[in-house]
Give the backbone structure.
Amino acid sequence: MDSSVKSFWAGVRAEFPLLVGVFPFGLIYGALALGVGLSAAAAQSMSSILFAGSAQLIAAQLIRDAAPGFIIVLTIAVVNLRHMLYSASVAPYIADLPARWKTLLAYLLTDEAYAATIIHYEKTGVTPAGHWFFFGAGLALWTTWQISSALGIFFGALLPASWPIDFAVPLTFIAMVVPVLKDRPALAAALSAGAVALLANGLPFKLGLILAAVVGIFIGAILERRR
Amino acid sequence: MNIWLVMLLGGALTFAMRLSFIYLFGRLSIPETVKRALRFVPPAVLSAIVAPALFLPDGALDLGPDNFRLIAGAVAILAAWRTKNMLVTILSGMAALLILMWAAGTV
């Protein structure tokens, strides 16, 4: 078999265990995007335009709370800042590729694609077909995300309107946050951000959310420095 | 702002961040301080969204027993802490809320 094809499928296979976790997440996103009032077309488009699970859930929650657009965009930017780290981390392995490959792989650079790809790169270093592995992992995730969002949109429409499906957003975030609270700086970041978000809830334009995030990140960073 | 414009701007920013260092490789690197601080983005941002959703379900502070979302949220936090499993956490929180609402006759 051609080494690029082989590398592609190795990437798809490496991504597989991660897809099991992503699939229900996509279902939840699709169902609640309709629940907050997005059209099916907008909900599905967001999965390919933004293509970032937690940012999409946050956007849905802020749309539900009628936050102004610039706050939603700003919040999306803050939660997606971590992608710059991934970008810096994979950059040396794909530095010699043509621009169209870099563009394509950058679009596919999600948490899950990064996780599978960087493990591979750290094992093999730069290889002639290495970018096909990245592409395989990224495309497998992209396809799963589109299908699971679509199924969520389809089945979400069948749920009774009185069901509190919007509550899936805070629940998903609880599931994401609690396991990362492994040390005091992280716990302090979470608690201080939560407290500021409550105190500053009355600020206009949902600015309390941005303020809370900044305070939480700052407190976490300061405490870590002291250790 | 129109929802499509929000999506396009948010998507463009996200793509720009994903491309940033791939594009700028060798010309720029991330300062160590910023790298370390980024670890706190998820707990800070997500908690800032969770706290009002649990404590201020209708916009005002509600610590009473009729704040079902706070109770269901506490169930989910416990489930997340014990199992570290995303699906179990979401399902137990949602089940708790549905049971409370059903008992109160609101679902």
Observations:
- Residues 181-226 of chain A form one domain.
- Chain A touches chain B through 93 residues (CB under 8 Å).
